[in-house]
Design goal:
InterPro entries: Cys-tRNA-ligase, Cys-tRNA-synt_Ia_DALR, Cys-tRNA/MSH_ligase, Rossmann-like_a/b/a_fold, tRNA-synt_1_cat_dom, tRNAsynth_Ia_anticodon-bd. ATP binds at residue 275. This protein folds into three domains: 4-263, 3-Layer(aba) Sandwich (Rossmann fold); 313-414, Up-down Bundle (Four Helix Bundle (Hemerythrin (Met), subunit A)), CATH 1.20.120; 425-478, no CATH class. 48% of the residues lie in helices and 14% in strands. It has helices at 39-57, 73-82, 86-103, 119-131, 160-168, 176-180, 212-223, 237-252, 283-287, 293-301, 313-330, 332-340, 351-362, 367-389, 398-414, 423-426, 431-446, 450-462, and strands spanning 4-7, 12-15, 23-28, 61-66, 135-138, 141-144, 187-192, 207-209, 227-233, 257-263, 266-268, 271-272, 309-310, 466-470, 474-478. The protein has a four-stranded parallel sheet, with helices on both faces. A four-stranded antiparallel sheet has the order 5-6-7-8. The longest helix has 23 residues, at 367-389. Bound molecules: adenosine-5'-triphosphate and zinc ion. Zinc ion (ZN) binds at residues 29, 215, 240.
Length: 479
């Protein structure tokens, strides 16, 4: 079967064919690192991780690149607010990104390019755009001349006249940047240095790159002129991805990406979850409740990736219920495999279930349907587990149970759903006992007995419990 993917650019599902047989070049727009990631970001990266995992399952070798935007007005504002530097702010949130995202079992990218490490490539690309006659400089700024790229608007479907009308209404004579542009819909490729802000030397004087050029330059330098899949949230279609196309394609005269894929937004009361609106829940805030990170993964995958997803307490509670069913089934071998004489030398697979799962996923990564197959297997195992829990003999043969279990593990892994036996529970440590240890450690810290406080932390670590210290002598923990 061939995989079909919805391509935003052609507005239809298309058969997926990679440029080079057996390999996929994939680029996903990464976060601007000025704050902790929220559930909207979690959705985006869970979705693209799942697409990547499915392509790998289908036999492709995927080269997955995701950038960090580590220079931006938002980062500079945060640095000013915290009385620190842009580097310190971005480093802090890059580390936080890794902590949060790895808990969601999102695989590491093959490369995480940062804008500040690609300034020469960015400058080179802007020079190429000048040479091609699509960029012009004014007083140390460089702008892209949208009128010079006839295909502008092909991704978002916006017409040039519409763009001008839209942008025209926003031009203000007091906006010095707008005054420099030849056309209101032109956008900045390079910005002249402002007092006290980081800047790099360039042919146009000291300055820093605009936002859109970074992805064009990093794609080109790490993956080449044309890639297979470019992905990101639907809010990036315009202007970010439209501008990436304009920049890259004017410079190389080749398509930037064969497939453009976009995830729908996580919404709160009908509005996009976003930092600027202040209606967000951070990943770490949610996981420290404490909630199994796999619940978040399941919450995301239960919806089709292109549809909006409403975040509510009820939706999370329902995903938690569903996860418990899958988790118990994933741990079936751990609990009963030995007793039932599972022979793991054998790979017993339910071919029919695999085929149904693939048919769903081949249809534009239909994870809700793929999950339905996972649930069927989990429910089969649950029925016999209930009998085993009460000391009875299962109705299904051990061979069949092993087949269900092995198939379940295979499919759940493709979706990034993995269950760990709870070490602390295995060792009989209850929540109250963990709290008591946390309290003891706090006392030790107050008494400046750091040897003892470290010992307690390491002891809990060995039991699979991580402590996170917070301001005001608070410590939160998670398994
Ligand atoms: N609510 C959301 N739902 C789904 N994806 C989102 C959401 N918010 C951001 N994203 C995606 O996360 C990725 C990283 O986003 P970025 O760092 O640019 O954040 P952002 O859009 O500026 O977030 P915010 O608006 O909260 O500041 C992008 O692909 C973006 O589309
Ligand atoms: Zn980008």
């Amino acid at each position: 079967m061939v995989i079909k993917l919805y391509n935003t650019q052609t507005r239809q599902k298309e058969d997926f064919q990679s440029l080079e047989t057996g390999t996929v070049k994939m680029y996903c727009c990464g976060v601007t690192v000025y704050d902790y990631c929220h559930l909207g970001h979690a959705r985006s990266y869970i979705v693209w991780d799942t697409v990547r995992r499915y392509l790998e399952y289908a036999g492709y070798q995927v080269n997955y690149i995701q950038n960090f935007t580590d220079i931006d007005d938002k980062i500079l504002n945060r640095a000013k607010l915290e009385g620190t530097t842009m580097e310190i702010v971005s480093e802090k949130y890059i580390q936080a990104y890794f902590e949060d995202i790895r808990r969601l079992n999102i695989k590491d990218a093959d490369n995480y390019p940062r804008v500040t490490e690609h300034i020469p490539q960015i400058i080179q690309l802007i020079q190429e755009l000048e040479k091609q006659g699509v960029a012009y400089s004014v007083d140390g700024d460089v702008y892209y001349s949208v009128n010079q790229f006839p295909e502008y608007g092909k991704l978002s479907g916006r017409q040039q006249e519409q763009l001008q009308a839209g942008a025209g209404g926003r031009v203000s004579l007091s906006d010095p940047e707008a005054m420099k542009k030849k056309d209101p819909s032109d956008f900045a490729l390079w910005k002249a240095a402002k007092l006290g802000e980081p800047a790099w030397e360039s042919p146009w004087g000291n300055g820093r790159p605009g936002w859109h050029i970074e992805c064009s330059a990093m794609v080109k330098s790490l993956l080449g002129n044309t890639i297979d899949i470019h992905s990101g949230g639907g809010d990036l279609i315009f202007p970010h991805h439209e501008n990436e196309i304009a920049q890259s394609e004017a410079a190389t005269h080749q398509p930037l990406s064969r497939y453009w894929m976009h995830n729908g937004m996580v919404r709160v009361s009908g509005e996009k979850m976003s930092k600027s609106l202040g209606n967000f829940t951070t990943i770490r805030g949610l996981l420290d409740t404490p909630l199994d990170p796999m619940v978040v993964r399941l919450f995301v995958l239960q919806a089709h990736y292109r549809k909006p997803l409403d975040f509510t307490d009820e939706a999370i509670a329902s995903a938690e219920n569903s996860w418990n069913t899958i988790k118990e089934a994933l741990l079936f071998n751990h609990e009963y495999g030995e007793k039932l004489g599972f022979d793991l030398q054998k790979n017993l697979i339910d071919q029919d279930a695999i085929e149904r799962f693939k048919t769903s996923m081949d249809d534009d990564i239909n994870t809700p349907e793929g999950l339905a197959v996972v649930f069927e297997l989990a429910k089969e195992l649950k029925r016999d587990r209930n009998i085993l829990v009460h000391g009875g003999t299962p109705e299904t043969s051990p061979e069949t149970l092993q087949k269900y279990w092995q198939t379940l593990v295979e499919l759940a892994t493709v979706l990034g759903l993995e269950a760990q036996p709870e070490k602390s529970q295995a060792l009989g440590l209850s929540d109250a006992e963990i709290e008591a240890f946390v309290q003891q450690r706090l006392e030790a810290k107050k008494a400046k007995n750091y040897g003892e406080s470290d010992r307690i932390r390491d002891h809990l670590k060995q039991l699979g419990i991580t402590l996170i210290d917070q301001p005001g002598n608070q410590t939160i923990w998670h398994r």
